[in-house]
Specification:
Length: 179
């Protein structure tokens, strides 16, 4: 009974942070999680095998297993040492914080996957639209992100190092700047 009540309490508490009193999503506001870090925020998977669970405990079923380290995910909720994440496809679930890294990665234009041959994201030498193209990256490729200036992100993928327009990746918020 105690275990049932603690889960019931968790469900009640977990639902409250998802909406404000006016019905607007709380994560759209500048919120901080129990860790003191902002919510939502981007991180990446640390391990090459990560279980995505339907709840914040190993007692919950595994809904999905990621088999690649470095995949970017968005933390949207925190509970104890568990993080509710969302991936570029919109899949959500819970992972233990020990399986996440602060290293920033991104997916190039995941919304363009499967659109046919000839669809690419341009990686440029400098953070300017008229800068020379140094690589053409297919949609859905995971890139390592070193910094973003609010419009462009310095990215590295398969030996190519350059700048990608921030609006062409999933892994940095519009206007977000960091080094």
């Amino acid at each position: 009974m105690r275990h049932f009540l603690s889960r019931l309490l968790f469900v009640a508490v977990a639902v409250l942070p998802m909406t404000a009193f006016d019905g607007a999503p709380v994560f759209a506001q500048a919120a901080k999680g129990a860790s003191g870090l902002p919510l939502p925020r981007f991180v990446s998977l640390k391990s090459k095998s990560v279980n995505l669970r339907i709840g914040p405990s190993i007692d919950y079923a595994v809904a999905w297993r990621y088999l690649r380290a470095g995949v970017p995910v968005e933390i949207i909720q925190e509970y104890d040492n568990w993080r509710r994440i969302r991936d570029a496809d919109g899949t959500e679930g819970w992972v233990n914080q020990a399986l996440l890294s602060g290293e920033r990665t991104a997916v190039t234009a995941p919304w363009m996957r499967g659109k046919g041959a000839g669809v690419f994201v341009n990686m440029r030498r400098d953070p300017q639209a008229n800068s020379s193209i140094i690589a053409r990256v297919e949609p859905g490729v995971v890139v390592h992100v070193g910094e973003c200036n609010g419009e462009w992100c310095r990215a590295e993928a398969q030996g190519a190092d350059g700048w990608i327009a921030q609006g062409e990746i999933w892994g940095a918020y519009p206007g977000e700047a960091f080094k």
